[in-house]
Amino acid sequence: MVEQCECEVPVYDGWRQVPEGFKTAGQWRRNDRKVSRGEKPAAKICWRKRSATVSLQYHSDGHVTRSETPKIIEHFVNLFGMEQTSTYNPKIRFRAFQCFRRYFAEYSSDEKYLWWNNQWVSCRGKAGERYLKEHIEGRHIYGVVGGPKTRFIAIDLDLHKGDRQIFLDQLTVLLAEFAGKDGWHYQVADQQANGIHFLRVLRDPCPTQMASDELKVILGRLSAENPELERRAAEAGMRSIRDLEVFPNQAQGFRLPLCRGRTMLLDKPLPLRQLKKNQVQDVEAYILWIIRRSGYMTAQDVKAYVEARLRPSDNTQIAPAPRAEGNKPALAAANRLGRVKGRYAKVLVDFWTGQSNPPDSLNEAIRLLAVMLPFYLADTEQAIDLIEQYVDELPDTNFSDRLSSGRRDEVSRVIRKTVEATYLGKGLNDAEASKQKLTTTFNAWQARGFNITDKSTWAKPYNELPMANDFDWTAAEKEKLSSSRSMGKDNIDTVAAATKELLRIIKAHRSELSISLVKKLLIKHGISCGHNGKVNDFMNSLVNWGWIYVRVKEQWHVDGVGRARAYGIGPMMAHKWKSENESRMCSLIYTNPP
Prior knowledge:
Layout: E1 2-4, E2 10-12, H1 25-30, E3 33-35, E4 43-58, E5 64-79, E6 85-87, H2 92-104, E7 112-116, E8 120-124, H3 129-136, E9 142-145, E10 149-158, H4 164-178, E11 185-189, E12 195-207, H5 208-225, H6 227-235, E13 245-247, E14 253-255, E15 262-265, E16 272-275, E17 278-281, H7 283-292, H8 299-309, H9 333-336, H10 344-352, H11 362-370, H12 380-392, H13 401-404, H14 408-423, H15 431-447, H16 475-482, H17 492-508, H18 515-524, H19 532-544, E18 548-552, E19 555-558, E20 561-563, E21 566-569, H20 580-591
Parallel strand pairs: 2-4
Antiparallel strand pairs: 1-2, 3-6, 4-5, 7-8, 7-9, 9-14, 10-12, 10-13, 11-12, 11-15, 16-17, 18-21, 19-20
Helix pairs in contact: 2-7, 4-8, 11-14, 12-14
């Protein structure tokens, strides 16, 4: 069926309807041609995918009802003719990337792929080029599910909670069979390894089931040749060699090679490569090795490398294993936003108002926002729309490569995946405990009138806080202000007005009050503050006079997080908000303590 869209170009329903000569921009690139600048699509192809809107309803007794509404999502892809393209010579890295795609993704399932978001999330569709690029650059981790054919075969040898020595003995048997021949190589975690992947890229695509069956015959033979080892594995509750998982298959997903936090073992450990300001996996060197197969690490070296990084079998603390040359761990996104405990609302508000946008922090900010939205919004589409709105309202997008370079659709994809995973209850390490903590956070926000979906309730500046009752100064109080060492040179009326506002804020504001906030208030009233020393002297004077007192002391920075002092109204100012009798009694107690 051919449809007609608003832009008056034909829209085809499936590739069978597309005339010869039309390709996507990516398909033309793979044929060493690129779409000329300014060319508009000559046609479109429409993909329709089944999806569902997830709705959550919170009941008064605490339980949650979840429902799904089926829907169809339409995705349009632009098509171009040859006359709209020109020849070009792509970079070596692009050609290597295309080889990686052909080896590991081209023949994978068209129905689903995997995305790591604290746990594996099954996603509809095929792992496309954009996802593979994110995987190689370490921004995300993806896996593929087997299709009818394959260009690679893999063995997954896991330790998990098994016996460390049995694992090493099984590794020795497998290395004796596969190491140093037929292009077999390995992927292992840089630290706290929980297993190893054996990988081999095939010269030509072959039926997945046939490749799997041939490899299982070899594993069965190795198992039969080592009966004592198999007995020990069975007693320890571990898989025997014959029962090791073989990938790809159509039932389970497989983590792609060149994964973040893991190293490929070829003729040597494959180091990372500097790309602009980031260190990424060296896809060029990897593909070049696959093609040439120029040397292998010895079985002894592979075993030593894995053993040095293998997690301990008990609770003994060990030093982190050395990484391959050039492998420097990237800072986790959660650390880029700082500590969340005790300051969840502040982290969110600071990010989404543009006050604090560290580089590479967008995904973590989306996740932190998404996990709270089920308490406010009933279904996924509402949550997606809200986050999309917040992203569009960010005052500055230079902190994000995707936003600043116009790749906004990539952000939308992350938003949808994160929200759908959150509403399905995925992505939390301890779901029950995490839900309880989130509920506690939600209740605390409700109590203080904070609503993450309503920006009018977000943390307000000091001059917008609900103020306490107004009052007048006495002559003695003004004289004391004028005699202040820190404020003596400033206009007394200006100092009095600023002090009055400060006291009213302290009366109404129960949280900590930073020196920088007091400094902003004084500057607003026209009092010059060249450094914090003047502000500190002023606050100390107010404390010494009994006008305010330190209710909670400051907490110095620990792991990058600190806390300012919290103040209360002192006895010599309490009468400003008390009756005449209460004020007299308060003054007597302060000047003549029992």
